[in-house]
Design brief:
By secondary structure, the protein is of the alpha+beta class. It is built from 13 helices and eight strands. Helices cover 48% and strands 20% of the residues.
Length: 287
Amino acid sequence: MAAISASMVKELRDRTGLGMMECKKALAEAGGDIDAAIEEMRKNSGMKAAKKAGRIAAEGVVAVKVADDGSYGLVIEVNSETDFAARDENFLGFVAKVADKAFAEKQIDVAALMVGDLDSAREALVQKIGENIGVRRALVLASDGVVGSYVHSNNRIGVLVSLSGGDVELARDIAMHVAAVNPQVVRAEDMPAEVVEQEKEIIKAQPDMEGKPAEIVEKMMGGRINKFLKENSLVDQPFVKNPEVTVGKLAKDGGAEVLSFIRFEVGEGIEKEEVDFAAEVAAQLKG
């Protein structure tokens, strides 16, 4: 058997991104031939998935499913590295499998959801399309009334809305509004106190507040805070399909009240890596 040196193991690690022991074992099985070891590692399906694991997956799709009786719904986000991969039929097939299992089990713990067949399917998909794939998050919304859903046409935004009273169509209309306008809360009183305080600090720092008496500042700030709350509270917003009525009025006219909503947008909150492609190419050439 050929002697396996530390430098050979390092080279294989650098070329594959896999662990030291796995590289050492592959080299031993290949008789010290690095190219042969790489070929076997590719055949054995671990290399590409491991190599891609550090890549940021901030594209992808959001999927929703709602029970036939409208009693509950699921929204789930599955990420890829590029929008191109997110449109791939194999990727979308994987998303459907994940959503079906999560919906059937009402499972929102991603780690528990992915144990077994789904994780194997994910690794196989990484091998096939050459990108990091990950299930990021899932939530279930249940209701004693009705749950409706809306998915934006490019599958980047998914919304669930829970109503007391009304029907699925009304809930879907309100979910569509949530997708388009992105309210922060259902009602003004639901706005977290820290968000209100942060907004007050922003208002106080605006140029037209400078030099004004404290009582005038407070009065102006009160008006602007009320405006901020109305603009960001679902029931106070003009309905996107008919700005003459608020969403709250729309729900009331339909014999309903908005209880809650969930809105997922692909990649929100993920810090994307900004790549300097010229520098990257130069570094590769230098290496």
